[in-house]
Design brief:
The complex is a heterotrimer of chains A (543), B (616) and C (302).
Chain A lengths: L17 E5 L3 H4 L1 H12 L3 E5 L12 E3 L6 H14 L5 H7 E2 L1 H8 L4 H8 L3 H13 L3 E5 L1 H4 L4 H15 L8 E4 L6 H6 L6 E2 L3 E2 L3 H11 L11 H10 L4 E5 L3 H4 L3 H9 L3 E6 L4 H4 L3 E4 L9 E4 L4 E5 L12 H11 L9 H11 L8 H7 L2 E2 L27 E2 L18 E6 L24 E4 H7 L6 E6 L3 E9 L6 E5 L13 E4 L6 E2 L3 E7 L9
Parallel strand pairs in A: 1-2, 1-5, 2-3, 4-15, 5-6, 9-10, 10-11, 16-20, 17-19
Antiparallel strand pairs in A: 7-8, 12-13, 13-14, 16-23, 18-19, 18-23, 21-22
Chain B lengths: L11 H8 L14 E2 L3 H7 L3 H12 L4 H11 L3 H8 L13 E6 L2 H5 L2 H11 L12 E6 L11 E5 L8 E3 L4 H8 L37 H6 L4 H9 L1 H11 L11 H10 L6 E6 L8 H8 L1 H15 L3 E6 L4 H16 L15 E6 L9 H9 L22 E5 H13 L1 H5 L9 E8 L5 E6 L4 H7 L9 E6 L5 E3 L10 H6 L8 E6 L4 H15 L5 H18 L7 H18 L3 H5 L2 H8 L10
Parallel strand pairs in B: 2-3, 6-7, 6-9, 7-8, 10-14
Antiparallel strand pairs in B: 2-4, 4-5, 10-11, 12-13, 12-14
Chain C lengths: L1 E5 L2 E5 L5 H8 L22 E4 L6 E2 L10 E3 L3 H15 L9 H9 L49 E3 L9 H6 L10 E3 L6 E3 L16 H5 L5 E3 H9 L8 E6 L8 E7 L2 E6 L13 H5 L2 H8 L1
Parallel strand pairs in C: 1-5
Antiparallel strand pairs in C: 1-2, 3-4, 3-5, 6-9, 7-8, 10-11, 11-12
Classes of the chains: A alpha/beta (543), B alpha/beta (616), C alpha+beta (302).
């Protein structure tokens, strides 16, 4: 539906009637967003949580639906079919603001509640309950996170959810919307600024000649007219030796990418690797050149953008240590070595240039960002208050701009299939007090942190003869690692869980599957097939 | 809710106890795939917290970590909150405790009747309060007033274990009996004779005590034979609006202490647009010296059920809650029996009397907290929260139980409604005085010849009532009378001709309160009595607001200094400070407990109780 | 808008405003302890009471909704008396040495004199107050004034709980509970003067439901709850607010965009707070935002 970003605001949740949290453990991964959700619950809103695990978020739900990993589309299509079958479609909205409804209806017709129950494992009554609650609500919010997007069919997953919002008209209105929650503090801002292979700043298409010309004029240079590679494509290019030099800024792919063994082989095979980071990460250890950087959030000036499209200022509170330098300094210095004198622009000057090129940011002067506590895009001019929700145009009659298309999407199981050899599903996620590969969160001593484990349910442990606390060998189709087993009460038989917060101790990403979505470039971290072996016996017991 | 539970496991007994209050059918059947444990579900279960704590306390004698865990898991209550609730009530123990516990009343009336000697003996034979006996099976504690003042001294027994008898009381209690029961003897059948007016020649004008001693309190048919349920039948004929009109016309005022017009409450609730509405009977009678509601509930329990039903009919409430003081086991048993029989006979339920309206009553048992007699604290207690009063406004008629419009009336107040419906509000208003209509129950105790519950028309004088109770015991001289309970006022014998009406007592700077008339002859150690009252308020303050939480402590400390002549810097300065404490408690406390915590104390000091003290 | 008369002067406040709002509109410095804009008023401290015409008792201005035509006195003898006594009762039973400058100003203004209640009683032994039984207390002889003094609780590297400084304002309970975090790791236990903030069975925080978000510390008005980092500097004598700067930025972790206020002394972060008036956090953070800043500093020492 155009620029990528959450369509609502956090405070919009306070007045919503139904919230669906799909593939998101926001209670632990987005705790302050969850505060807003809790406000809604205290006001009487109903929460449905869709997650293979009975997470701490799911435990706040009026109904938790524990589907099998990777069956989201089957569930979403069944919800859509039930909404249609029960006559709960917002027909006026569908007629006026969408296209492709008939094809959608035909495509979801086979997804009966019975079939969805077979595919997803979720009892049909619970699916029906979710469908009726969502469609029947005056306002409703659909929120998701990596449980939707870290799949080989991530984009289809998202489209399946968007279909539901279009069916019911739960988008473009106060209190109703769709909210992908961003996993990192500036994932949204990176996209805003054009750190995408197909976009220039402000979500302007690289392949649009007119837009590209605007930037070329401003920057006095030529921009390659073709979309670039996203991360996964880069690794494929490395494999082909089409890509031989890499400049990594603030990422730790050596530990954060799926199938870590493969990733490291690729990085080691490069002709030249530059890493610019605030830490000497595992990736930096492989680098030919390391450029020590200032911490963007505390040692430099700038902006970041949040999951509710709020652009906010980050400020310098500390002097960076040693030789570490502001990212802008480093880039300008590099440019100078390449023969371009960009001077020493202040962060605000760069921002003002951006405002001149990106219409959605036009009204966001530093002074206004300061005064208003951040501004939500689009904010085209300095009289505009910012936008608390998107797609209001779909409710104009006649609607403004393009109608929103339904998408036909089909259930496809995870790429890493379960077999007799690999009978157990491993899914991954985060825990409250840790973050990604732990380079930041490892800095503080959390009293509630404990060594990483392979979480399993007690029933599986007993079935497999594996005790709580036992060391085991975990084998996936890619690699094997040793882990300690822990019994937990939020998993059902056949489903296991771990994180990749402690890659130095537990190299979880040696196990995960790099199968990726061609459109988003995101790997299927959420669904690996494994078997669990007792150490002494070294024979498969899982299954 | 994403509760983090304790690692402790409940024992089978504890598990069974919790299960007994919990309807397992509402639990999700497929916890592997579907769970329903969100906030809405948690809210729906929370009100079972107090019953669950009671069940565990009864089963094993204390609330262990495992038991609390089981409760929290089943009811979706955070453990810290459940602990906060459990530790709020005096009848629950959160540390291991012997299964047989004697709560020995050492409050005012029992003190006069020798309770201190009983306590001294127990201290010698078992040890200080809370110590376990040699065999680990028994212990004892001091208790605030048990509401058995007419038969003081009194003791309450909490008897844990599934095999053991229900909690019970004895009064008058002797040290021998207490020790025998602590050693495992059965509690003797309750003594009779709390209402001298109903024995011998029966006074014909009794209204509230009409059925006491006449109709078997355990039999619905006996109640009906004695005119029971005529009032509800008549109310149904009249219709809700007319019932409220008659209650308003009767000018009935609340008998719990605040004297608020009952008709205004009912009318306000009936007129709200909001549903559901609730009827709550405040049977948490805990004011020291008060036992009137206890006697009504023990001797005429069906009247409470019927009158609540009338109230429910009048204000269109389908749910009633009857909150009975935890220390009233007999009243609880009789009311439970009454509710059961009424349900069986269609007098409670989905179609009451076949007249097309629904009303049912849930009984809730308090657990040892005077503050829960405050109406909003009582709501919190029923809802499964700490019994802390809420700020008013909003008032219960607007936001009461579960935040919904609620009629809350005291047992005695409701008892009057039956007559009002049957004889009409105007006739009722003809009894008593112009500003105090009807008759009134008085709890007469202390140094009188025949302590007991007396019903007289409003207007009877204080002296007249004491005479009715046979005058001062052993022909002694009357020193003072405590009018209205610990939250009331000490009045001197010069006020014996004061008419016992709302307006008459107000005129002498006192109040009827809950109808306590406790007489003290000249032998009474008034300093000791006043210190006991000060200690009572300190013990019973919920602790929520600063003026009451700290003020009651400072008041007690100050009185102790006065009592031992350690006044600092001078008795006059201490008297001024006492007055300052009284003012901040009265002006700035949240609820009536703090507002009245200095009343009796101040009146005693002004009567010179602490003057001329010699150092002991 | 509705009209309310405050100390003889008519002020206009919006529908739904409280009497405290009316007082503040007029610029009356009204003491508050348990009140915080971001929390539901519990009106427990009673220091904000005012005299409302027609009300038998004083009313808590923080929670009383203003009605059209309300006439309020904020400095009458009754009001002054109650405020003075409330502050005296607290100051005589609680250590207010780390309370805000506002509190110290009010203590002066109302001429608080704690000496008249006698010398402070000896502090309680460790954990003794946590075991007190509701409805049963040991009465002193009145020679000393009982206090809540007790040993400090330090069980981990993040939190310090010094309940000698606790005025039982309920703010931490609310922030941990319904009003923000909904973790419910702490509640009020016990009763009366023996009421205290407690986990279940007084278990240590790291064994309780606590998730170390620090939101309780963020709202504590008296320093009963402090960050260990601050406590350690205070103990070392190096905590110096005059040398500290406060810079607002955005949390480096997830994508919610929580605003952080970095309190920096000598180029080191010493404490992190969040602005109360920001629509994202309302002053509340999670463990990562509140405590996850060390990595920038650890880096410097490598």
């Amino acid at each position: 539906m155009g620029a990528g970003g959450g369509t609502s605001s956090y405070t919009d949740l306070h007045r919503t009637d139904v919230v669906i949290l799909w593939g998101s453990n926001a209670r632990e991964t987005h705790p302050i967003f969850f505060h807003h959700l809790l406000k809604a619950l205290h006001s009487g809103a109903r929460l449905y949580a869709v997650d293979p695990r009975r997470t701490s978020s799911a435990r706040w739900a009026d109904v938790w639906l524990g589907l099998d990993v990777g069956t989201d589309i089957a569930l979403a299509n069944a919800v859509g079919r039930e909404i249609i079958a029960a006559g709960l479609v917002n027909q006026e909205f569908v007629d006026q603001a969408t296209s492709g409804f008939d094809e959608y209806r035909a495509a979801v017709e086979p997804y009966t509640l019975e079939r969805a129950e077979r595919i997803t494992g979720v009892p049909r009554d619970a699916i029906r309950s979710l469908a009726h609650a969502y469609a029947g609500a005056k306002s409703a919010q659909l929120c998701w996170t990596l449980g939707i997007t870290e799949h080989h069919n991530a984009v289809d997953n998202v489209l399946a959810l968007i279909n539901l919002a279009l069916l019911t008209g739960h988008v473009g209105r106060p209190g109703s919307g769709m909210n992908p929650l961003r996993g990192q503090n500036n994932v949204q801002g990176g996209g805003d600024m054009g750190a995408l292979p197909n976009k220039l700043p402000g979500f302007q298409d690289v392949e649009d000649d007119e837009l590209r010309a605007k930037f070329e004029r401003a920057w006095d240079c030529t921009i390659p007219p073709k979309n670039g590679w996203h991360l996964t494509q880069m690794f494929e290019a490395m494999e082909r030796r089409d890509l031989r030099g890499l400049y990594v800024i603030g990422e730790n792919p050596a530990q954060s990418e799926a199938d870590a063994d493969h990733t490291n082989r690729m990085l080691q095979g490069l002709d030249h690797l530059i890493v610019q980071d605030i830490f000497l990460t595992k990736t930096a250890e492989l680098a030919d050149v390391v450029l020590p950087a200032a911490a963007g959030w505390a040692e430099a000036e700038g902006t970041v953008t949040s999951s509710e499209r709020r652009v906010q200022r980050v400020r310098k509170a500390l002097d960076p240590p040693g030789e570490a330098r502001d990212d802008v300094d480093i880039l300008c210095e590099l440019a100078k070595r390449f023969g371009h004198d960009w001077g020493q622009p202040a962060a605000e000057e760069i921002w003002d240039e951006l405002r001149g090129l990106s219409p959605m940011h036009g009204g966001m002067s530093y002074a206004r960002l300061e005064a208003l506590g951040g501004i939500q895009w689009p904010c085209p001019d300095e009289d505009h208050p910012g936008s608390t929700y998107l797609h209001g145009r779909l409710w104009k009659r006649p609607i403004e701009g393009r109608v929103a298309p339904f998408s036909v999407v089909e259930d496809v199981p995870p790429a890493d299939g379960l077999t007799d050899e690999y009978p157990v599903r491993l899914t991954t996620g985060r825990r409250l007090d840790s973050y990604n590969t732990g380079v930041q969160s490892g800095g503080f001593a959390s009293p509630i942190r404990r060594p990483e484990t392979l979480d399993i349910c007690e029933a599986d442990g007993r079935r497999w003869g594996i005790a709580d606390g036992e060391r085991v060998r975990v084998q996936s189709r890619r690699s094997a690692i040793e882990m300690t087993v822990r019994y937990v009460d939020n998993l059902r038989p056949g489903l296991t869980f771990t994180t990749f917060h402690f890659p130095d101790e537990v190299e979880t990403n040696k196990l995960t599957n790099p199968a990726w979505d061609q459109r988003s470039g995101t790997a299927e971290f959420k669904a690996a097939a494994i078997r669990i072996e007792k150490l002494e016996a070294a024979v498969g017991v899982g299954g | 809710m994403d509760l983090k539970l304790l690692p402790a496991e409940a024992s089978p007994e504890e598990r069974a106890a919790v299960a007994s209050v919990f309807d397992s059918s509402s639990e999700a059947s497929n916890a592997d795939r579907v769970a329903r444990e969100g906030l809405n579900e948690a809210k729906a279960r929370r009100h079972l917290l107090l019953p669950a704590l009671h069940a565990v306390q009864k089963a094993v004698g204390w609330i262990s970590q495992g038991a609390l865990n089981e409760i929290c898991c089943r009811l979706i209550v955070p453990p810290a909150e459940a602990y906060g609730v459990a530790s709020f009530y005096a009848m629950f123990s959160t540390v291991a405790r012997a299964p047989r516990v004697a709560h020995v009343c050492d409050d005012i009336a029992c003190k006069l009747a020798g309770a201190d000697a009983i306590c001294a003996t127990l201290e010698r034979t078992i040890g200080p309060p809370g110590t376990s006996s040699a065999d680990g099976q028994a212990t004892w504690l001091r208790s605030p007033c048990l509401g058995l003042c007419e038969r003081s001294p009194a003791a309450l027994f909490q008897l844990a274990g599934s095999e053991s008898a229900d909690d019970d009381t004895i009064a008058p209690a002797t040290i021998d009996e207490i020790e025998q029961i602590l050693n495992g003897a059965t509690v003797p059948a309750p003594a009779v004779g709390s209402t001298p007016q109903t024995s011998g020649t029966r006074e014909p004008e009794l209204r509230l005590l009409r059925r006491v001693g006449v109709a078997d309190p355990t039999s619905l048919s006996a109640y009906r034979a004695a005119g029971g349920y005529d009032a509800l039948a008549r109310a149904v004929q009249m219709g809700p609006a007319q019932v409220i009109a008659e209650v308003s016309a009767s000018e009935l005022q609340g008998r719990g202490g605040a004297a608020f017009p009952t008709g205004r409450k009912w009318d306000a609730v009936a007129k709200t647009a909001e549903t559901p509405r609730y009827v709550v009977c405040n049977a948490d009678e805990s004011e020291p010296g008060t036992f009137k509601d206890r006697v009504l509930m023990e001797e005429d329990p069906f009247a409470t059920v019927e009158s609540m039903t009338v109230a429910g009919f009048a204000v269109s409430a389908a749910h009633g809650y009857l909150y009975v003081r935890g220390e009233y086991p007999l009243a609880t048993a009789r009311l439970e029996g009454a509710i059961r029989q009424c349900r069986a006979d269609g007098l409670l339920g989905a179609d009451v009397m076949g007249k097309g309206f629904a009303f049912d009553i849930e009984l809730r048992r308090g657990a040892g907290a005077y503050i829960c007699g405050e109406e909003t604290a009582l709501f919190n207690s029923i809802e499964g929260f700490r019994g802390e009063p809420r700020n008013k406004p909003p008032f219960p008629v607007e936001k009461g139980l579960f935040g919904k419009p609620t009629v809350i009336n005291n047992v005695e107040t409701l008892a009057n409604v039956l007559d009002i419906v049957l004889e009409g509000g105007a006739a009722f208003a003809g009894v008593g005085t112009e500003q105090s209509t009807g008759s009134k129950l008085f709890c007469v105790s202390g140094s009188v010849e025949r302590p007991g519950l007396y019903e007289v028309a409003f207007g009877t004088t204080l002296g007249g009532l004491i005479d009715l109770a046979g005058g001062v015991r052993d022909g002694g001289g009357l020193a003072t009378v405590l009018l209205g309970g610990a939250a009331g006022t000490f009045v001197s014998p010069e006020h014996l001709d004061t008419p016992l009406t709302f307006e008459g007592t107000r005129a002498i700077g006192a109040s009827l309160g809950s109808g306590v008339v406790m007489a003290f002859d000249e032998s009474a150690d008034m300093r000791d009595i006043v210190l006991r009252i000060a200690a009572f308020f300190r013990d019973e303050s919920c602790g929520q607001c600063v003026p009451c939480r700290v003020g009651t402590v400072r008041q007690e400390e100050l009185l102790r200094r006065l009592a031992r002549d350690g006044a600092r810097p001078s008795p006059a300065a201490e008297a001024d400070l006492l007055d300052e404490l009284a003012r901040v408690m009265r002006d700035a406390s949240i609820c009536g407990l703090g507002h009245t915590a200095a009343n009796a104390v101040q009146s005693a000091v002004s009567m010179g109780v602490f003057e001329g003290t010699e150092r002991e | 808008m509705i009209d309310v008369t405050v100390d003889g002067e008519v002020v206009q406040v919006p529908e739904g405003a409280t009497l405290l709002d009316a007082c503040r509109t007029k610029g009356v410095d009204t003491p508050t302890l348990c009140y915080l804009e971001t929390l539901t008023p519990v009106n427990a401290c009673r220091v904000c009471v005012v005299e409302l015409e027609g009300s038998r008792t004083l009313v808590p201005s923080c929670s009383r909704a203003a009605q059209p035509g309300d006439v309020v006195q904020t400095d009458s003898p009754r009001v002054r008396h109650s405020r003075k006594l409330v502050l005296e009762l607290l100051a005589s039973s609680v250590d207010l040495s780390l309370a805000s400058g506002d509190v110290r100003r009010w203590v002066d203004r109302y001429e608080v004199d704690t000496a008249r209640f006698g010398p402070a009683a000896a502090p309680a032994a460790a954990d003794e107050r946590d075991g007190r039984d509701s409805g049963h207390h040991h009465a002193s002889d009145g020679a000393t004034a009982e206090t809540v003094a007790q040993p400090i609780k330090i069980h981990d590297e993040m939190y310090v709980r010094d309940y000698s400084k606790c005025i039982l304002c309920y703010k931490c309970v609310e922030a941990c509970g319904d009003d923000a975090q909904n973790t419910f790791a702490i509640a009020v236990a016990g009763r009366g003067f023996d009421a205290r903030i407690s986990t279940e069975f007084d278990r240590k925080l790291d064994q309780s439901a606590c998730v170390y978000c620090g939101n309780c510390i963020g709202v504590c008005p008296t320093g009963a709850l402090v960050f260990k980092s601050e406590h350690d500097l205070r103990e070392a004598g190096t905590w110096d607010e005059a040398k500290q700067t406060m810079t607002r930025t955005v949390c480096p972790y997830c994508g919610v965009g929580c605003n952080l206020e970095l309190h920096v002394q000598d180029n080191e972060i010493v404490k992190v707070t969040s602005p109360m008036d920001h629509s994202v956090t309302h002053g509340h953070l999670c463990i990562k935002g509140r405590f996850g800043w060390q990595f920038v500093q650890n880096r410097g020492s490598e």
